[in-house]
Amino acid sequence: MTRASGDINDPARAEAGRSRIDWAAAEMPVLAGIRERFARERPLQGLRISGCLHITSETANLARTLRAGGAGLVLCASNPLSTQDDVAASLVVHDGIPVFARRGEDTETYYRHIRAALAHRPRITLDDGADLVSELHKTQRDLLDGMLGGTEETTTGVIRLRAMAAEGALRYPVVAVNDALTKHLFDNRYGTGQSALDGVIRATNSLIAGRVFTVVGYGWCGRGLAMRAKGHGARVVVTEVEPLRALEAVMDGFEVMPLVQAAARSDFIVTVTGDKHVLDRCHFEVMKDGCVIANSGHFNVEINLPALAAMAVRRQRPRESVEEFVLADGRRIRVLAEGRLVNLAAAEGHPAAVMDMSFANQALAVAWLVEHGPQLAAEVHPVPREIDQAVARLKLDALGLQIDRLTPEQSAYLASWGEGT
């Protein structure tokens, strides 16, 4: 495709992409309601936005919502293996949104696409891992003075942004969408829990029941994955470095032990930590023959693939999303999706119904930044409680559910201190 419309693999797949986007839209009623309001009120009129996000059918519905609000939007991929090429084609062909994303793009192309998105001279950034913000601060600092703010969707990205803020490097405010309760309690737990396990099963077609399934990291994503693996009949082991999370995993009924011990008995190991080289040489040395390892943290650094490659005497691809590393003693270690996000690289990512709340937060946070961005300090900000509450209420309404409300007497009691026993 030409620069004006982005850089995508196959515009001929646009019709298939539109069908996929419309299918997801049916599961995203909260975002649909926001899109209707945005179309009436145009709160983003004339606003330039660049987004570095997973180019999926759910993201496409966020993009349509921002465009309905009047924004000029350019997108690039936040992961080389998460792009759905048919969705990218539909966004370009049917919605006129420039998209710079090709499934399987190399590292050089990945960063070229990020720079192309920044060439849009955005006033707001949308990030999924903080690569866009990082590149902007490293190579496009001339754009910083015009920035209103940004949003960040992932735990990994929020960690990076807080590190930038702590060093005084962050030059504009960013809203931590990831930390909204209607995001991480649902997207991270139920979305990652289901989609990561889906990726493992699609890649291997292996039975989970009765197998030892180790979850590395017991944050919200790890909680969800452990829950879903247990539901499939796995014998679940959790490994952690945080004592409170380890204790919680014990109380939730899981075995807890050091990773080097778990590695020796596991059939499956999935990392969800956001840290580097969590699975390392010492673990590869004790793994069982045929152990399947995968990552559902944002970046492909959680598994030390260079160390594993150095140990291997042969590498082969028995299945599309599986690479087998054969060690000198004949043991085979099977890596899924090149160590990238297994739920997006080997499956389709989170179900649309859970992304409905995450992207509702994104859209409302962008509108909030338009109004409040100039007054905000250059640091990481929480999603305002009123937005979080509104998204939850809209989701309940969409599900046809009602809840109780406090009476005036109850509200007054909770706001007072004088009445006791």
UniProtKB/TrEMBL annotation:
Q: Which cofactor does it need?
A: NAD(+)
Q: Which residues does the annotation say bind NAD(+)?
A: 154-156, 188, 217-224, 240, 296-298, 343, 350
According to the UniProt entry, its GO molecular function terms are:
adenosylhomocysteinase activity
* Pathway(s) the chain acts in: Amino-acid biosynthesis; L-homocysteine biosynthesis; L-homocysteine from S-adenosyl-L-homocysteine: step 1/1
Q: Which residues bind substrate?
A: 56, 128, 153, 183, 187
Q: Catalyzes what?
A: S-adenosyl-L-homocysteine + H2O = L-homocysteine + adenosine
Question: What EC class is this?
Answer: hydrolase
Tell me the GO BP annotations in alphabetical order.
Answer: L-homocysteine biosynthetic process; one-carbon metabolic process; S-adenosylmethionine cycle
> The organism sits in which domain of life?
Bacteria
The yes or no answer to whether the keyword NADP is present is no
Which residue ranges does the record assign to the S-adenosyl-L-homocysteine hydrolase NAD binding domain? 188-349
Record HAMAP family: AdoHcyase (MF_00563)
Q: Which PANTHER family match?
A: ADENOSYLHOMOCYSTEINASE
Q: Please report the name of this protein according to its UniProt entry.
A: Adenosylhomocysteinase
